[in-house]
Task: structure prediction
Amino acid sequence: MIIDTHCHFDMMPKPEEYISQKEQAGDIVIGMTNLPSHFQMGQSHLKCYKHVRLALGMHPLLVAESKKEVQLFKKLVDQTSYIGEIGLDFSQEGVTTKEDQVAVLRELLSAIRGKKKIVSVHSRKAEKELLALLSEYEIEDVVFHWYSGSVDLIPAILGRGYYFSVNEAMCLSKNGRAIIEKIPRERVLTETDAPYNERTDIREVLKQLNMTEQEIYNNFKRLLEGLK
Result:
């Protein structure tokens, strides 16, 4: 059983065909959304699926122009157990909206605080700030998606009980491999981040990690226990 904890099938050319194939294969797929309105449009299409789920998200690079959707996020938050993708992006692409991102993220975290959710986060160039906010709002069951920050911060992330989702591109980069080496096997999950990531072979990820499908499933199952 292949597990993809972070992809964007709603952004694919033929999303219904894609998720139908995954469902028939018995793969577990968690689809991220970039805005609450995207989740709202897509959720009715997923009700007949057993293994494919849709997450409620608000991508940090879109929050400055979409602040009005915060209220929709709050309205929809109880309609799914999965949140993502949310977070912060202080890279060159997002640093000019830093203040807006933090303000909106505070509202999103406040909305999910105390609720049983699995949360996939974006943390590019803002890893410390994001971890501090997650800790402040006592958010549990978090998955750091495609982590690219300092290896020195990894122990603090692990200390919160959080997980990391790893994709093929990470396994093939020097920085990615250095990060993976610091993550205990029991905190590793797999992802594709398709279609934004061109390298999406999860079986290749398992090969590079020297892990089995069952090990990843056991980790995911442990994460799911937080929803009970």
Notes: The chain has a mean pLDDT of 96. Residues 8 and 197 are 10 Å apart (CA to CA). The longest strand covers residues 82-87. The longest helix spans residues 98-112.
